[in-house]
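Protocol step 4 of 5: obtain the predicted structure for the target chain.
Materials: sequence only (see below). No template structures provided, no constraints applied. The aim of this step is simply to have a reference model before the mutagenesis design in step 5. Sequence pasted as it appears in the construct record:
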Amino acid sequence: MTRLLCALCVGLSVVSVTTASAALDPARLADAIRPVENWHGLDGRHGERGPYQITRGVWSMHMPGTPFAAARQEGPGRACALKHIAWLARQLKAAGWPDNAHTIALAYNAGLTAVLTGKVPLESYDYALRVENLYLLGAAMAPRIPSVCTTDERPLLPLAAAVSRVCLPSTDHRANRPIFLIP
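Step 4 output (structure tokens):
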């Protein structure tokens, strides 16, 4: 009986992931990528810029004629990220790879060539899992997530307007207070 239930749960998980990949929402995926990139106003160690950590090569491919400095702004950075997500989805699909949130996030972090050649760094798998979890959370859990922030907590960027408020704990750790955490 336990094996049957486990097989059923795995089957349902595969169906839900497959369904989610069939109707991939690039805007929601960009919303899931942004908090995982964890931008604090500084360029990345490899020159990535802005809240979506866009590299110079990606910027020049999708935003020709626009200065790379604009990647630090939310609007242009998001526009470039959305174009790159769509491009990655097309490239992965053409190569026979699934164009789901996990695979696109993996390619977004490690690079398309690394994914296609199987030379993905281990930390990129962790990145892709976190992005996929946020993407799926925005789709499946949003109606059931209560707002638990209080005034002394710092709200994060809402994920595709699906999560009303997601918070990190403040320095005041009072007992018996519910806090919803997203890594």
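Step 4 remarks: Residues 1-21, 142-183 have pLDDT under 50 and may be disordered. The first strand starts at residue 154 and ends at 155.
Proceed to step 5.
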